[in-house]
Amino acid sequence: MSSPTADVSVRIAWADDAPAIAGLQLRTWPEQYAGVLPPEALPQDVEAAAAAWADSLRKPRDARNRVLVALERNRVCGFVVVGPAADPDCDPVADGEMQELTVAPEERGKGHGSRLLQAAVDTLLADRFNRAVTWTMSTDDATRVFLSEAGWAPDGAHRTLDLDGSGTTQVKQVRLHTAFS
């Protein structure tokens, strides 16, 4: 006799998912950016974030911009954003970008991140990208290990983001990439 399995899946996000995505993002960012950004620098208005998400889901800037959600039953547990790479040294026709991969902290270790990552790669392949890039904070060892175990590696690019324009709130990032063959 087999044991029951969880009802889990990944699908394209709908505009109706915007409040769940915004709530998840705003709940996750304080942990993700702890020690990097002051708490007051993080957005707090879930309704404004949900409205922005709904608008971007209804009218993406490019047909290849996609948001995928990880579900357990009908509850959003995580999301990933993919589209053409925007870096000046990337080819937006050949290079895709995973812009954000977020899983609720209480849902980590249940396979949602792996399912989202695989769905992101499948979506980028379907859009005929030859490789993908993603930026991660230089201090985020967990994400770098997760991605490197899935075949992503640093490509030598790095940047420092000045988040407040004054130079006091800076985030150092490294770029990872993977080639599709």
Topology, pairings included?
Elements: E1 8-12, H1 18-32, H2 46-58, E2 66-72, E3 75-84, E4 95-103, H3 112-126, E5 131-137, H4 141-149, E6 153-162, E7 170-179
Helix pairs in contact: 1-2
Series of H and E elements: EHHEEEHEHEE
Low-confidence region ranges = none
What's the Cα radius of gyration? 16 Å
Report the strand count: 7
Q: Tell me the strand order in the biggest sheet.
A: 1-2-3-4-5-7-6
Count of individual helical segments: 4
Explain how this protein is built.
With 181 residues, the protein is an alpha+beta fold. Helices cover 29% and strands 32% of the residues. The chain has helices spanning 18-32, 46-58, 112-126, 141-149, and strands spanning 8-12, 66-72, 75-84, 95-103, 131-137, 153-162, 170-179. The protein has a seven-stranded mixed beta sheet with strand order 1-2-3-4-5-7-6, with helices on both faces. A hairpin with a 2-residue loop joins β2 and β3 (75-84). α1 crosses α2 (46-58). It is globular and about 40 Å long. The protein starts with 7 loop residues before the first strand and ends with a strand.
